[in-house]
Amino acid sequence: MKAPKVRARLDVCPRCESAIVVALDAAVAALPVRADPLHLDGHAELRARLEGRTTYNLLGLGGLGAPALVERIPELIVHRKHPVVATHRCPGPIPASAIPPPSPPGEPDLFTPPDDIPF
Ligand SMILES: [Zn+2]
């Protein structure tokens, strides 16, 4: 596990070996965030918040800027313009073996959707 940076990346939880998204939550005075990569709908987000987990917008998917985690403000929680993820809790929902090997430079990675989505 490497030190987190503002740019979100996939990693492995050292305790439960689940896939996690690691990032800093801001560019200045930031806190490290470890989130489950599973996208939450409204009910799942509410359940996560009732469990005391913080939820984040996962920005920058699809090649629109660098992937980043931005904490969701409770007053604006009804707005869902980006995928929503929650703070990681062991054991995570996705095993690390589900993470594909890193893509060569210039190749699309897990954060880049394929061009030929069939729907
Ligand atoms: Zn874990």
Major sheet characteristics:
3 strands, antiparallel
Strand order in the largest sheet = 1-2-3
Cα-atom Rg, whole angstroms? 14 Å
The stretches of 5 or more residues where confidence is low (pLDDT under 50) are none
Number of discrete helical segments: 1
Compute the separation of the termini in Å.
36 Å
Helical fraction equals under 10%
Protein model, in words:
The protein has 119 residues and is mainly beta. The chain has one domain. It is built from one helix and six strands, in the order βββαβββ. The strands form two sheets. The chain has a three-stranded antiparallel sheet, with no helix packed on it. It is globular, with a radius of gyration of 14 Å. The model has no long low-confidence stretch (mean pLDDT 82). The protein binds zinc ion. Residues 13, 15-16, 18, 88, 90, 92 line the site of zinc ion.
